[in-house]
Design a protein that fits this description.
By secondary structure, this protein is of the alpha/beta class. The chain is built from 10 helices and 10 strands. The strands form 2 sheets. Strands 6-7-8-3-9-10 form a 6-stranded mixed β-sheet. Strands 2-1-4-5 form a 4-stranded antiparallel β-sheet, with no helix packed on it. Bound molecules: adenosine-5'-triphosphate. Residues 11-12, 21, 39, 41-47 line the site of adenosine-5'-triphosphate (ATP). Adenosine-5'-triphosphate is lined by residues 11-12, 21, 39, 41-47.
Length: 257
């Protein structure tokens, strides 16, 4: 359904620092798949997400959704069907606006004007319900500026905001990495709930091997711009953290770490 086909990606082209990250890189993600991506630092995880979202161009290859080639489609257009949550809770929310204003903004993503739909009574009630389920007390802080919230509260908001409009794909780039263990767990449970309810095709980059094993139905490990592990279904279910750790250690030794 979402396919990266024969992708080549170079950085610093034409300079002494030119480097080839991906050479003929291929990845095919089925509709409804929840893909966890782990891998060494600099293996190309974030670059892969950026390529999918259209944040960076590729030198060659195709990005396909179904039969449609979106390789040249601008990022803002792709954003209509893709929601993205970043590692930094500050990204994806506007600190100087209230919770209500942020939610209304997200609700109106892709539209030209106004906060109207987001601020009518029914929608406010809907936001309240969404927040009440989180158990973070945000439902009573709708007029509070987002800048004064904790990282976990902001990340929960970012997750709700990015999945508010009818998207098909959810891109999570280490979205629990900056949170304390308890809040990270809460955000992971919320993620899983939203992904299942909305049947989103999801790619989650994480350094947390337990989350990679426990969540999702496919697990990919990347190293130096290559996929060195790709397990789905039963094979993925049967994987234990130790299995991934062993492979991870082998890769690290190969790198001299
Ligand atoms: N804008 C850029 N300009 C030049 N090189 C870049 C750029 N972005 C990434 N790179 C390089 O591409 C490689 C892959 O980086 P990327 O951020 O995709 O890896 P990653 O797997 O997400 O790493 P991490 O786990 O550390 O976040 C690295 O060697 C990095 O230095």
């Amino acid at each position: 359904m979402l396919e990266l086909k024969g992708i080549s990606k170079y950085y610093n082209v034409g300079s002494v620092n030119e480097m080839c990250l991906f050479q003929d890189f291929n990845l095919n993600i089925e509709k409804g798949e929840f893909l966890s991506v782990v891998g060494s630092n600099g293996s190309g995880k974030t670059s892969m997400l950026n390529i999918i979202c259209g944040s960076i161009p590729v030198e060659s290859g195709q990005i396909l959704i179904g039969d449609t080639d979106i390789t040249k489609e601008k990022e803002y257009k792709r954003n209509k069907r893709i929601g993205r949550v970043y590692q930094n809770p500050s990204m994806g929310t506007c600190p100087s606006m209230t919770i209500l204003e942020n939610m209304a903004l997200a609700d109106n993503k892709g539209k030209l004007y106004g906060l109207g739909r987001g601020t009518n009574k029914a929608r406010i009630e809907y936001y309240r319900e969404q927040f009440a389920q989180l158990g973070l007390g945000l439902e009573d802080k709708m007029d509070v500026k987002v800048g004064s919230l904790s990282g976990g509260q902001r990340q929960a908001m970012a997750l709700l905001m990015s999945t508010m409009t009818p998207i098909e794909f959810l891109i999570l780039d280490e979205h629990t990495a900056a949170l304390d263990p308890k809040t990270a767990e809460l955000i992971m449970q919320l993620t899983d709930k939203i992904v299942k309810e909305k049947q989103l095709t999801t790619i989650m980059v994480t350094h947390n091997l337990r989350y990679a094993v426990e969540y999702g139905n496919r697990l990919v490990m990347m190293h130096n711009g290559h996929m060195v592990l790709d397990k789905k279904g039963k094979e993925k279910e049967d994987m234990a953290i130790d299995d991934i750790l062993t492979l991870f250690n082998e890769i690290s030794i190969e790198c001299g770490n």
